[in-house]
Design a protein that fits this description.
Shape: globular
Number of strands: 9
Helix content: 25-40%
Low-confidence stretches: none
Order of helices and strands: EHEHHHHEHEHEEEHHEEH
Number of helices: 10
Radius of gyration: 19 Å
């Protein structure tokens, strides 16, 4: 479900529809204008909740500001837990807390998939998550904890943040601040996962992050904007492993969405 005309949201939804179709899933787009009221949106959610044709419901955020500050929470709460393929319903979050999660927030699940398939040891590792959002930071910390990592969650009020982060064997950056995590945040040899995806059109910022003649600067010159992560490019010189932006966590987020959809479909079919 896509409400409004946010360009980034339109791209994300297009990629999800494309990936779903390629995987053999039926994907339907419910596109609504920015003038849609919260009541109208909730009515569509209710219709899809009762649809036998649909196993999962995804509402693309952000919603238009005119819907109100609590619109996203009310919409996520209205989706039936068994169709909540974003893993954001309080019931599914509760299952995750108890390590019984079946439908888990897609980006953190994708990060775990990335780490495990890269043979990064999680048990006993010191992990630091920068960011405490309900969508990424908190579920990320829980997933790491359930795999026996020792987890610290950092945020804007954390004192001496670089020093805390530099103690991590695994560092996950999820704050939406381009290039914020510099080498001072990173222990040599640490695994760094960059969850940030910020569209940047500020030439001065791009020039601070990327040297002359680099591919990213060339891409900016051609397009006028590029997607930048939370991790400064210089971190690559000291990290033992670093996920790229774009092309790292993003595609895995979509893959986990498809996995959740299949999980939901199997559950609705009685596990057949």
């Amino acid at each position: 479900m896509l409400v409004g005309d946010d360009p980034a949201s339109a791209i994300y939804v297009r990629n999800k529809l494309k990936s779903g179709a390629e995987a053999g899933l039926r994907t339907d787009l419910e596109q609504m204008p920015a003038t849609t009221t919260l009541a109208e949106l909730l009515a569509v959610v209710d219709r899809l909740n009762h649809s036998e044709a649909h196993d999962g419901i995804l509402v693309q955020s952000p919603l238009p500001a005119a819907m109100g500050d609590d619109a996203e929470r009310r919409v996520f709460d209205a989706i039936r837990p068994e169709k909540d393929v974003d893993g954001l319903h309080p019931v599914n979050v509760g299952y995750l807390v108890q390590n019984r999660g079946a439908l888990v927030s897609c980006t953190p699940a994708g990060v775990i998939e990335l780490l495990e398939r890269s043979n990064i040891a999680l048990a006993g590792a010191r992990a630091v998550v920068i960011g405490r959002s309900d969508i990424v930071g908190k579920p990320m910390a829980l997933l790491l904890l359930h795999r026996n990592a020792t987890v610290t969650i950092c945020h804007s009020r954390t004192k001496d943040l670089p020093a805390v982060a530099a103690g991590a064997d695994i560092l996950v950056a999820a704050i939406g601040r381009p290039g914020f995590v510099t080498p001072a945040f990173v222990k040599p040899g640490a695994t760094v996962v960059d969850v940030g995806t910020t569209q940047v059109s500020d030439r001065a910022l791009v020039e601070r992050l990327f040297p002359p003649g680099s591919k990213r600067r060339d891409a900016f010159a051609r397009r006028g904007s590029i997607v930048v992560g939370d991790v400064h490019p210089d971190v690559a010189e000291i990290a033992g492993a670093l996920s790229p932006v774009p092309g790292g966590v993003g595609p895995l987020t979509i893959a986990m969405l498809l996995k959740n959809t299949v999980t939901a479909a199997l559950a609705r079919a009685g596990g057949a």
